């Protein structure tokens, strides 16, 4: 059922076995997975079904370097469905190497391995509507009558593979997609309910609660649950923990000053010219699986090569020339440039970067559109039918250069660093909570990951005779920080581990310092890997749901203490 906190009388105390905060990918997955568990579950969501500026404004904060990190309220959405109302739908699992402790990758190593997530990836793929769990060309396209074209013909390398896939969701808005199912189910979804404080008054019981909940109109009530799950995203999780003092007084779960540290995103950029005129064939577009799923191949640095190079995980895609430079002469790219005013910030940042302006540049792009009118019209027609009006949207702009000269779009693992962190400042929001201050930093290891990977790729392209890759090594650091922290990938701020001095939660997502508080989402990732995090967020949420239902058995925890002055529901 779906309720509105504005309809709940002030001073009410809701009671449940489990209270989940945050109705994004992780929170909705947990609620769906626990529908038939027999547990009494409440799912709190700050927003409603539609965007609300006053609610979104609760996300605002400050950043230490605006050049390196976008505003705190961008790339995330405070409404039912969370940031799945915004994402691009790219799905891929983490790799086995991502879970390993690597001597060249500081603070690496998960307390679980890939095998712990594998039982849940297939179901995660289904919830994300990304088709079957098949992430190589051989798995996804096994039939002779539906083969996957090689990405680069005659490119055989022990350093880079070209057969791993990215699969694309619709992209699925979890709020819109699963609202009716939750509305008809046992889980109580409470919208416009802001979890503000999780009190822990004594360390003797190691229990937290009841949760303090507020609405924007000033109403307060509590939720007394046997256990709580924070599924509010990698930036909001540390804010919630740090706004609840805990027994240490430094923040709930923060006795050792780890909450908010090790903040990662991904290192991404576009660089160089990859000339593939020597290849027997080149395919950089999308294949469509039998289920209608868009799939795309990429260059991936093999695990052994990562070890040999002391590089983090790294992938690259064949990319069109930079859009802002009218010198590319392409009407399609110039049409996209001229459409800048209507492109949302989150996509414009990546498409255009610091684009040159002025009437001269605008006219040059207009000339490209007119000169290349037939191609431009074909592209716009395809975009309208396969993207704008389609339920399953064509994922991205694909432009094939006639001379087979591409730029290289890379996406790499960021090393966890304890000085890259999310803190709380002195400014308070409309609910009285202290706002976040973000100090995202990259490290020399991040620069080396990209530098060594690009050099290895240039060598392999030359060795195999398929072409050449030219770029300026001196510009690598500038290119990889051109867009700063990559989009909405907020990772590692409440990392999992076995040592409370260097981690916030254990292998099951439970706070080291409290027996009844769990965290779901990318905040618990110890390392980022190369993969976009949503699919693994959903898989981890399914694993946590199984743990809560079968192993943790939250009903074995003490009945929550209720306030004698409140009304229990």
What is the strand and helix layout of this fold?
Elements: E1 2-4, E2 12-21, H1 25-33, E3 41-45, H2 53-56, E4 62-63, E5 90-91, H3 114-127, H4 137-140, E6 160-161, E7 165-168, H5 174-183, E8 188-191, E9 194-197, E10 211-214, E11 220-230, H6 236-242, E12 266-275, E13 287-288, E14 294-297, E15 299-301, H7 303-309, E16 314-319, H8 331-338, H9 345-352, H10 359-371, H11 373-388, E17 405-413, E18 421-428, E19 434-439, H12 444-464, E20 468-470, H13 476-480, E21 517-519, H14 534-552, E22 567-568
Helix pairs in contact: 1-5, 1-14, 3-14, 8-10
Q: Can you describe what's shown?
A:
Pfam families: DAO, GMC_oxred_C. GO terms for molecular function: oxidoreductase activity, acting on CH-OH group of donors. Keywords: FAD, Flavoprotein, Oxidoreductase. The longest helix is centred in the C-terminal third of the chain and has 21 residues, at 444-464. α1 runs parallel beside α14 (534-552), α3 packs across α14 (534-552) and α8 crosses α10. The chain has helices spanning 25-33, 53-56, 114-127, 137-140, 174-183, 236-242, 303-309, 331-338, 345-352, 359-371, 373-388, 444-464, 476-480, 534-552; strands spanning 2-4, 12-21, 41-45, 62-63, 90-91, 160-161, 165-168, 188-191, 194-197, 211-214, 220-230, 266-275, 287-288, 294-297, 299-301, 314-319, 405-413, 421-428, 434-439, 468-470, 517-519, 567-568. Helices cover 25% and strands 19% of the residues. The protein is α/β, with parallel strands linked by helices and 569 residues long.
């Amino acid at each position: 059922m779906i309720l509105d906190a504005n309809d709940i009388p002030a001073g009410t105390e809701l009671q449940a076995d489990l209270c989940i905060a945050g109705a994004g990918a992780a929170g909705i997955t947990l609620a769906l997975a626990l529908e038939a568990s027999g547990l009494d579950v409440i799912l709190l969501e700050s927003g409603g079904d539609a965007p609300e500026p006053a609610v979104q404004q609760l996300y605002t904060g400050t950043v230490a370097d605006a050049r390196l990190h976008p505003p705190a309220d961008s790339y995330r959405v405070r409404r039912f469905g969370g940031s799945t109302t915004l994402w691009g739908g790219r799905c891929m699992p983490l790799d086995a190497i991502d879970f390993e402790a690597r001597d060249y990758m500081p603070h690496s190593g998960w307390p679980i391995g890939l095998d712990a997530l594998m039982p849940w990836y297939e179901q995660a793929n289904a919830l994300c509507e990304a088709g079957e769990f098949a992430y190589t060309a051989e798995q996804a396209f096994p039939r002779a009558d539906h083969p996957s074209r090689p990405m680069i013909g005659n490119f055989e390398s022990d350093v880079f593979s070209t057969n791993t896939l990215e699969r694309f969701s619709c992209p699925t808005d979890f709020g819109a997609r699963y609202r009716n199912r939750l509305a008809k189910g046992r889980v109580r979804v409470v919208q416009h309910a802001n979890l503000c404080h999780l009190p822990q008054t004594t360390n003797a019981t190691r229990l937290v609660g009841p949760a303090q909940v507020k609405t924007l109109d000033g109403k307060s009530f509590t939720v007394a649950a046997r256990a709580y799950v924070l599924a509010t995203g990698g930036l909001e999780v540390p804010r919630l923990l740090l706004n609840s003092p805990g027994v240490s007084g430094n923040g709930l779960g923060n006795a050792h000053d780890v909450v908010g540290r090790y903040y990662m995103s991904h290192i991404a950029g576009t660089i160089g010219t990859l000339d593939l005129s020597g290849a027997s064939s080149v395919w950089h577009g999308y294949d469509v699986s039998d289920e209608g799923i868009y799939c795309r191949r990429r260059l991936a640095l093999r695990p052994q090569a990562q070890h040999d190079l002391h590089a983090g995980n790294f992938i690259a895609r064949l990319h069109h020339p930079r859009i802002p430079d009218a010198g590319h002469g392409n009407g399609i790219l110039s049409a996209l440039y001229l459409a800048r005013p209507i492109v949302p910030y989150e996509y414009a940042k990546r498409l255009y970067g610091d684009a040159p302006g002025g009437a001269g540049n605008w006219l040059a792009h207009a000339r490209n559109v007119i000169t290349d009118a037939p191609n431009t019209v074909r592209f716009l027609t395809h975009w309208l039918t396969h993207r704008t009006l389609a339920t399953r949207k064509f994922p991205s702009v694909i432009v094939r250069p006639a001379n087979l000269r591409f730029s290289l779009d890379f996406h790499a693992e960021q090393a966890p660093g304890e000085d890259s962190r999310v803190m709380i400042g002195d400014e308070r929001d409309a609910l009285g909570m202290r706002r976040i201050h973000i100090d995202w930093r990259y490290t020399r290891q991040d620069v080396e990951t990209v530098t060594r990977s690009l050099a290895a790729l240039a060598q392999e392209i030359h060795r195999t005779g398929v072409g050449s890759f030219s770029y300026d090594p001196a510009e690598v650091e500038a290119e990889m920080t051109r867009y700063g922290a990559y989009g909405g990938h907020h990772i590692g701020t409440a990392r999992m581990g076995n040592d409370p001095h260097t981690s916030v939660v254990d292998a099951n997502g439970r706070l080291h310092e409290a027996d009844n508080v769990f965290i779901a989402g990318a905040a618990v990732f110890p390392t980022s890997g190369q993969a976009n995090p949503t699919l693994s967020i959903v898989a981890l949420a399914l694993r946590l749901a199984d743990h809560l239902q079968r192993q943790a058995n939250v009903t074995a925890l003490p009945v929550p203490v209720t306030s004698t002055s409140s009304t229990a529901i």
